[in-house]
Amino acid sequence: MSNLITIENIVYLASFGLILIGLFIVFSDKNLVKLVIGLDIAETGVNILLVSTGYIQGKTAPIFSRTGLKASQMVDPVPQALVLTAIVIGFGVTALALALVVRLYQKTGTLDVSEIRGLKW
Amino acid sequence: MVNPILLIIIPLATAFFIPLLAIVWKNGSRYLALLAALANVLIGIKLLPYVLEKPIHVTIAGFKAPIGIDLLAGPLGIVFSLIISITGFLVLIYSIGYIRDESINKYYTLFLLLLTGSTGMVLTNDIFNLFVFFEILCISSYILVAYNRDEHGLEAAIKYLVLGSVGSLLFLIAIAIIYLKLGTLNMADISDKFDALGGSYRMMVVVLILSGLGVEAAIFPLNSWLPDAHSSAPSSISALLSGFVIEVALIVVMKLVYSVFHAMQVLNALAVVGVITLLVGEFAAFRQENIKRVLAYSSIGQVGLILLALSINSKAGISAAVLQIINHTASKSILFLVSGYFILKTGSYRYSDYSGIAKRMPVSSLLFVLAALSLIGVPPFLGFFSKLQIVMAAAARGSTFYVSLVSLVLLGTIVEGAYFLRIAQVLYFGRQQDTDSGWLETGNAAGIDMESVGNAPVSAVIPVLLLGIVVVFGFLFLTNLNGVTGSIAGEITRALSLASLF
Amino acid sequence: MRRFFSLILIIGFGFYLVTVIGRIPFAATGEAKGSVGVQIVNDTVNDTGAANAVTSVVVLYRGFDTLGEVTVLFLAALGMSLLLKGTEEVKARVFDESFILKTGSYLLFPFIVLFGLYIIVHGHLTPGGGFPGGVVIATAFFIIVMTSEMVRLRENLVSILESLAGLTFIALGIAGLLGTKNSFLANFMGKGVFNTILSAGIIPFIYAAIGIKVGSELTGAVGSMFLSPFGKQEEAGE
Predict the structure, then answer these.
(1) Kind plus residue range of the DSSP H or E element containing B156
(2) What is the pLDDT of residues B246-257, one digit of tens each?
(3) pLDDT tens for residues C65-81?
(4) With contacts defined as CB-CB under 8 Å, which chain A residues touch B143?
(5) What number does CATH give the domain A2-56+74-119?
(6) C82 is in which domain, residue-wise?
(7) Is residue C15 one of the residues assigned to a domain?
(8) Which of C41, C125, C221 faces A71 most closely, judged by CB atoms?
(9) Pairing of strands B70-73, B56-59
(10) Could you report the predicted ipTM of this complex, rounded to two decimals?
(11) What DSSP letter does each residue of B456-472 carry, written as one string?
């Protein structure tokens, strides 16, 4: 039993769980704000998956400020840089989506997808 | 020799500079954007002969290939950045007269970033960098679709944004798998290592990337956003979105499938999807009344045709597909740009309201009809030759599978001919109005005073005329064009490898 | 019905994810020996002179991505100001807070900005850098805007700062293109003394530009959300 609780399984559980919950909200919910929240949740899941790809067991952050640390003791810095980019892009998309929703709410007075004509997909 | 990275940097820097310029010169962004696009056209023309000989490989920040980011300016990259910048330049001329509201500086900034994103997508040789440029392209098109800030535009933009974001999530998952298994992001390096990967991983990466980029490329089940987005954007932006944005996404994803993932096993499925996309698009276009929705659905049909041609898995097929892309870019841009002024002058989106408009706007109407004929594939226009090449490439494969697909393409062409000729008939000879079904609030059915409809301004006619020259006289340069498209086909079908970059 | 179908779809997708990706172990097994990340960790101190390897990846190795990333933020801020400009309802949401809250936020303001600047300039030495630092600086403005409608920040000034920072980033990149390495964003300055503020060549300068850009972009985005405190009738730059 104990060999099931590894760092890999925890990370996979968290990231897949968040991705699937987020996508389920996106596909099933009719409220536009919840839809944007769903996108954000799924994005978080993908970011966890992406940043975890650089993990190497028992190693530390790739910062050489403290003397005595060697390169062989450090994790992969590339996924951390990638996830920084992915987070910022996700933030931009979310902010833009919320601005669109605010504006659409002012025009139509509703957040329900099924009440807005063009949004039946 | 010019560094190809300037093709990305010039529009980007100009976009950053526009807010500064706006302080001293309110409408200066119009001309600055034109200059930036013109610079890109010139650089592209200068680089084209070099890359036809040998692709230019550019490293960024001075790090060797798999470590840093690099660009690979091959025939595909330079030809597509030429398509992008030439279309962009002409649409910018058109915009001088067409976009006249108070936020034009934002319009031009977004326009340039759209060019930056799509140019970056075709030039980059790094899969995460591709994702970043893909996002720049997507986000600037979301905003531009909502540019008019009317209800339709906002709805379409949200729909587009949600589907596009789900697509980019899938793309990002694929990148995570690639990095987890291969430890690299460089496309050439991925191509070298990809075959050693287990079959299920390879399939998953290909499926995720196809569905991620497929949203933007409007491949069949993922294209429900397209008619709304392309029909509610300003007409100049519709011309870009239909003209090169979907094609860029499509050619990039097919480049990945062929030369990076070597996933020939998905091609037959993609060919079937292409034909379904074609038929869905053409039949849906037939039923539309709104002229921009007709054109948007027709774009879906054309994308299906191009996807089919790209999936034939022969150099002839890909070469024909690129020729078809060139034809579609020119023709569809003409159709959208002209219909923009039809809508502006008559105040109606229904094409049945344009009866007899050809007397008032003779040049625009003539070009509209010529572009439509070229899209249908009537000789001697460019579209005839590209469709002919696609049919011949499919026939050359010899199997009944391709022959039956091609016969379905011909069925789609008949439908396409029917609705375009119906519009042409209305433009020239008029049609009885049916006044009951008000399509849009702007559509004042039969009450349009045709006498008041004037000609489109010069700034709108010039770009349409120039694009018309490509469509009408393109066949004179068919051998040159075939040479270029052939070398693009060669680049796509050849597997990328790290060793060949240096 | 819709819920049911999406549930089926999600379960199918989840099953696919688990069966395919779920079996991949992380790099602990030595699979990552040939990965670019390992090469970067080994070479970064010699190549860039930055103590923080993540920063050297963000700013130099993958600096082109970062340029795209600030462009995405630029786009988002631009889109928000385009979409939200002239919305009436948003203005009604801003109300005057109590004296204590206002004074408190004014007192906090300089310290938050200082903290943000500290994070930015130490980006190549410690965790942090332009993105978190810029966000911290934007937070300072956010607090002021939230609590007080008296502040009149000029949207104009924000967009000038944003443009200048973006152009600085590109100019530093082009300087690398013109320099001896003939490559965009190449590090053309000396590496300096390792682990000091003025080390690692262009990294601190680029990160400072990113910090200013992110800070002004987010401030601008906040400004679009609360249009009224940002100079009601100032048609900035139009």
Answers:
(1) helix B151-182
(2) 999 999 999 999
(3) 999 999 999 999 889 88
(4) 96
(5) 1.10.287.3510
(6) 50-230
(7) no
(8) C41
(9) antiparallel
(10) 0.93
(11) PPHHHHHHHHHHHHHHH
